[in-house]
């Protein structure tokens, strides 16, 4: 029942190439007079960081064919850069929960697997771009291993 590692890698590769900002977005940034800020370290328990991590894991769950949902278990590092909104760069660990995908439960109510055969933790690097005034977010990068 564990997800095929190759499939996962492929899936995440696709995510990080096709899920990226559109060409328009890139040229907009390049042509912008406003210089983007440098990434700065922020607290891993910052509400924005937690939200960004959740967005990433939701994207991860949508992308895998695991029968269980994964949830963020620990955020190791968080950087924030101001670029036409907020860009979070996170190192986050995610773990398999006991919640089945098919039941669409809220991740908040999902506990991590304790069964040794089903337990699984992955380390991910993810970038989440949030445009607060449009209430939009994108996950241009998501790599897990
Ligand atoms: C979820 O996955 C499906 C199929 O893999 C894809 O078409 C869809 O765009 C994904 N949605 C999100 C929000 O990632
Ligand atoms: C752990 O999960 C496996 C696979 O679903 C199952 O066969 C096994 O009985 C479970 N072990 C315990 C202690 O629940």
TrEMBL record:
Residues 34-145 form the Cystatin domain. Gene3D superfamilies: 3.10.450.10. Pfam families: Cystatin (PF00031). The keyword Signal applies. Keywords: Signal. SMART domains: CY. Residues 1-19 form the signal peptide. CDD domains: CY. Coiled coil: none annotated. InterPro entries: Cystatin-F, Cystatin_dom, Cystatin_sf. It comes from the Eukaryota. This is Cystatin-F.
């Amino acid at each position: 029942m564990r997800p095929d590692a190759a499939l996962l890698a492929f899936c995440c590769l696709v995510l990080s190439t096709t899920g990226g900002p559109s060409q328009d977005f890139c040229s907009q940034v390049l042509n912008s007079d406003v210089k983007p800020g440098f990434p700065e370290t922020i607290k891993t328990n910052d509400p924005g960081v937690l939200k960004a991590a959740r967005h990433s894991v939701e994207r991860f769950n949508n992308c895998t064919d695991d029968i269980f949902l994964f949830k963020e278990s620990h955020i190791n590092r968080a950087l924030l850069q101001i670029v036409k909104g907020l860009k979070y760069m996170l190192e986050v660990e995610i773990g398999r929960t006991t919640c089945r995908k098919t039941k669409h439960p809220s991740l908040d109510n999902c506990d991590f697997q304790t069964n040794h055969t089903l337990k699984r933790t992955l380390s991910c690097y993810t970038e989440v771009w949030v445009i607060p005034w449009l209430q939009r977010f994108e996950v241009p990068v998501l790599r897990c291993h």
